[in-house]
Amino acid sequence: MFQLVEFLSRNRNFILFVLLETLSFWLIVQSNSYWSATYFNTSNYYVAKALTLSNTVREYATLREVNADLAAENVRLNTLVTQLQQQRAVDAPPNYQPDSLFSARFTYVVAKVINNETNRANNYITIDKGTLDGVQPGMGVISATGVVGKVRFCSEHFSVITSILHAQFMVSTRLVRSDEIGTAKWPGKSPDFIDLIDVSRYKTVEKGDSAVTSNLNAVFPPGIMVGTVENLTVRPDQTFYDISLRLSTDFRNMSYVYVVKNQLRPQLEELQKRLETERR
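Request: output the structure for the sequence above.
Response:
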């Protein structure tokens, strides 16, 4: 208390000056309509600026929660789209009616990317979901924009994904306009492009055509974007096109991915094993 009194006593002249200046300013604003309007317009402007800055900071602070909510919503939408695609397949005959369990066989688990490689010959991605979340090796992984890769290893809380940017990763891919099926395989160069091989040169392929996962996938739902045709060439001695796809997924800026669960995959693998046994 003594220090406060001492401070006021030592600075009394300055405090009196500030009070008189404030009183003078208030009297001018109250008695003059021009300065009154100017004061309120100016104060409203700076108050609005302060509120805008405050809202911006608050929105930035909640971006993590917003992204998580959007990722969860994408899971629901992906499940719904996949079911509709299976029920209304473009190439299905009119009287074809898929089994309800078959059309709903794909479900999704949202995961956050915690490590991502793009500059190696064989690239891997690490996510924050593992066996405790139902993730198993061999499951497909997609993003909101397209194919990402396939689960390679799992622990209880983490999983390592073989990225599509891997020399040994291949995915059956269909060109939407030409309805031709080939295999997408990364040539080990730019993380923005992937090759599409085994597409016959005698089929019409156009630049800009969309490439999506085909129906010949047990790992990925059909219709998931892989990329778009960027360049295509064919040499006289070749049977197939040389096609370069621009990947639909930006691997340098991935935050969330979706692990694809095929509920019927164990049955399919069991049948494949029995078939291989019969062939031996």
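The domain at 89-262 is CATH 2.40.10.340 (Thrombin, subunit H).
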